[in-house]
Specification:
heterodimer, A: 469 residues, alpha/beta, 6-stranded parallel β-sheet, B: 105 residues
Chain lengths: 469, 105
C-alpha cells in the first residue's frame, strides 16, 4: 500500500460524492409529477455543495470568478423567468450551448496551464482534453443553430447543398488528424488543439443546418447528451469524479430520450440526423397541389355547436397551439364544455411540438390537470368512442397515411388515430403542409371539417359560440 | 492508459448504467422538465470552470476563465430556474378553479 492510499479522504472529494448522490436522487424523484419539484431542488442543493466545495480550492482570481458567476447567474435567472413557456425549447437550447461551450473551454484552459508551466502533457490528458473540446464545441455550435431555427430567425426547413456529407467527412478528418497531432505532442500543440476546436464548431453548424424544424426535439436531446459527455470528459481531464458522474448521467439521459423519440417517429436516428427530412422535393410539392379538393371549411359557431352537444371530446394539440399560444383559450373552452357535461381529454403524441413532452408543459401552464392528459397508447382506443376530435395545430402526428399509405415518407410512424372519431375538427392556419411537407388525407375525409385561422383566435371564437348556446 | 484513468472510466460506465436505470422510470409527461433538469446538471462543468479560472495566471487564461465561468454559471442558474418554472405548473385535478356543483358527468 502506498502512502496516498492510507491518507484521509479530501473533504472536497466527499462533498463531490454527496453531490453525485443528490443528482441521482434528484433524477429519481422526477419519476412522478408529485415529487418532481422536490427532485429539482435536491439536485440544485447538490450543485450548491459542489460549487461551494470548489471555491475552497486555492482560488486566487476571486474577482474574475465572482464577477463571471454573478453575471451568469443574473442573466440566467432573469431570462429563465421572463421567457414564455412557448419559447422553452429555444431557452433549453441556449443553456445547453452555454454548457457545451464551457466544457470546451475548460479543456482549453487546462491544456493552456500545462503548456504555460512547461509540465509535460500525459497522453490521458491530451486525449481527453481534445475529446472535451470537440464534443463541447459541437454541442455549442449545434445548439446555437437549433436556437436560431426554433426562434425562427432562420428557416426551419432543412438547408441542404451538394456534397454535404463529403464536406462533413472532410471536416471530421481535420478534427481527427489535429487530435492525433495533439496526442502525439506535435509542436505547437496548442495550435493543433485550436484547429480541432474550430473545426468542431464548423461541424456543429453544418450538422444541424440540414435538420428540419420538426426534428429539433431529437436534435436538442442529442446535443444535451453531447454536453453531458463533454462535461464527463472534462472530468477525465481534471481527474474530477463529480464531473464524470454528472456527465455520465446526462449523457445516458439524452441518449435514452433521443432513442425514444426516434422510436416514436419510427425513424432511425441516422435518418433524422442525415436524412434532411422535409426538404422540399418537386414531387412532394406536386402532390400537395392536387390535395384539398374535398375540404369543408366551417365557422367557429358551427364548431361550437358540434362540441357543446358532444359527450366526449378529445383535444389533439400540436406545434400550432404553441405558436398561437392557444393553450389558455383551450383550457377555457374545456371549462365551458365541462359545464355543459362534455368530457374533455387531451391526446399527447410523443413528438408533438418541438421538445419531448412540450405539449404537457404548455397545457400545464394553462392549468390543465395532468390527469386529463393521455399518452398515445392510452388514448388511441378511445377515439372510437369520441364524438369529436379537435385537432389544434397538429398535422403529421394525425396523418392516417402513416398507417395506410406504404409510399408515404412517414409510413410506419405511430400516429394518433384521430380519423376513428365520429367527427374531426381541424384548426389550421392554411392548407399548407406540415413540417414534414406531406399531404394529409385526413383533411379530405368526409367527416372532417376545417376551421382556418390563428388557433388562439379560432378557439376564442368557439368559446364565445359555446357560451352563447 | 494509466490505472487512474481506468478507475475513472469504471466510475463513468457505472454512472451511465445508473443514468439509464433512473431515467427510464420518468414518464413521457415529464420529459421536457427531465431534459431541462439534466441540462441544469451538466452545468456541473462550473466546478471545472472555477478551478481553471480561479488559478489561471496568464492573461489569455484569465480571459478564457472569465468566459467559461460565465457560460457555466448561465447554464446552472438558468437551467434550474427554467426547470423549477416548468415543474410548478404540473398540478393534479383537485385544484381546478371551478364551481363544484356543475354536474359534469
Amino acid at each position: 500500500m502506498t502512502v496516498a492510499d492510507k491518507a484521509l479522504a479530501n473533504p472536497v472529494d466527499i462533498a463531490y460524492l454527496i453531490t453525485g448522490i443528490l443528482f441521482i436522487l434528484g433524477l429519481r424523484f422526477l419519476s412522478s409529477p408529485k415529487t418532481a419539484r422536490l427532485g429539482n431542488r435536491i439536485s440544485a442543493v447538490g450543485m450548491l455543495i459542489a460549487v461551494a466545495a470548489t471555491l475552497t480550492q486555492g482560488i486566487v482570481n476571486w474577482i474574475v470568478v465572482g464577477a463571471a458567476l454573478l453575471v451568469g447567474a443574473v442573466v440566467g435567472i432573469v431570462s429563465a423567468q421572463r421567457v414564455k413557456m412557448t419559447a422553452m425549447p429555444q431557452m433549453v437550447a441556449i443553456f445547453n450551448g452555454a454548457g457545451g461551450g464551457a466544457a470546451a473551454l475548460v479543456a482549453a484552459g487546462e491544456l493552456l496551464k500545462y503548456v504555460n508551466s512547461g509540465t509535460p502533457i500525459t497522453y490521458d490528458v491530451s486525449f481527453t482534453s481534445v475529446l472535451s473540446a470537440v464534443i463541447g464545441a459541437l454541442s455549442f455550435a449545434g445548439s446555437i443553430i437549433a436556437f436560431l431555427k426554433l426562434q425562427e430567425v432562420m428557416t426551419g426547413r432543412p438547408i441542404t447543398y451538394p456534397a454535404q456529407q463529403v464536406v462533413n467527412a472532410l471536416i471530421l478528418l481535420v478534427i481527427v488528424v489535429s487530435w492525433g497531432l495533439v496526442v502525439a505532442g506535435y509542436h505547437p500543440v496548442l495550435q493543433w488543439f485550436w484547429i480541432a476546436l474550430g473545426a468542431s464548431l464548423i461541424l456543429g453548424v453544418l450538422f444541424v443546418l440540414p435538420i428540419g424544424g420538426a426534428d429539433m426535439p431529437v436534435v436538442i436531446s442529442l446535443l444535451n447528451s453531447f454536453t453531458g459527455l463533454a462535461a464527463a470528459s472534462t472530468g477525465f481531464v481534471l481527474g474530477n469524479n463529480v464531473l464524470i458522474i454528472s456527465g455520465a448521467l446526462v449523457g445516458a439521459s439524452g441518449t435514452l430520450l433521443t432513442v425514444l423519440m426516434g422510436k416514436a417517429m419510427n425513424r432511425s436516428i441516422t435518418n433524422v440526423l442525415f436524412g434532411a427530412f422535409g426538404a422540399v422535393k418537386p414531387s412532394a410539392a406536386g402532390a400537395g397541389a392536387k390535395g384539398g379538393q374535398n375540404v369543408r371549411s366551417v365557422s367557429a359557431d358551427d364548431v361550437a355547436a358540434m362540441l357543446a352537444y358532444a359527450n366526449e371530446v378529445i383535444v389533439v394539440p400540436g406545434y400550432g397551439m404553441a405558436v398561437a399560444q392557444a393553450q389558455h383559450s383551450i383550457r377555457e373552452l374545456a371549462d365551458q364544455l365541462e359545464k355543459k357535461g362534455v368530457e374533455v381529454k387531451y391526446a399527447i403524441h410523443p413528438v408533438a411540438g418541438r421538445m419531448p413532452g412540450h405539449m404537457n408543459v404548455l397545457l400545464a401552464e394553462a392549468n390543465v390537470p395532468y390527469t386529463s392528459l393521455y399518452d398515445m397508447d392510452d388514448i388511441n382506443p378511445e377515439f372510437e368512442r369520441a364524438d369529436v376530435a379537435l385537432v389544434v395545430g397538429a398535422n403529421d402526428v394525425t396523418n392516417p397515411a402513416a398507417r395506410e399509405d406504404k409510399n408515404s415518407p412517414i409510413y410506419g410512424m405511430p400516429i394518433l388515430n384521430v380519423d376513428k372519431a365520429a367527427n374531426v375538427v381541424v384548426l389550421k392556419r392554411s392548407m399548407a403542409s406540415g413540417f414534414a411537407g406531406i399531404e394529409n388525407p385526413l383533411y379530405d375525409d368526409p367527416k372532417t371539417v376545417m376551421l382556418f385561422g390563428d388557433a388562439k383566435k379560432s378557439i376564442d371564437g368557439v368559446v364565445a359560440g359555446v357560451k352563447a348556446l | 492508459m494509466t490505472a487512474h484513468l481506468l478507475t475513472e472510466l469504471t466510475i463513468f460506465i457505472l454512472a451511465v448504467f445508473v443514468g439509464f436505470e433512473v431515467i427510464s422510470k420518468v414518464p413521457t409527461m415529464l420529459h421536457t422538465p427531465l431534459m431541462s433538469a439534466t441540462n441544469a446538471i451538466h452545468g456541473i462543468v462550473l466546478v471545472g470552470a472555477i478551478l481553471i479560472a480561479g488559478t489561471a495566471d496568464a492573461p489569455l487564461g484569465v480571459i478564457v476563465g472569465f468566459i467559461l465561468v460565465l457560460l457555466a454559471s448561465l447554464n446552472v442558474f438558468g437551467g434550474y430556474t427554467v426547470t423549477e418554472r416548468m415543474l410548478e405548473m404540473f398540478r393534479p385535478k383537485t385544484q381546478a378553479p371551478k364551481p363544484p356543483a356543475d354536474g359534469a358527468q
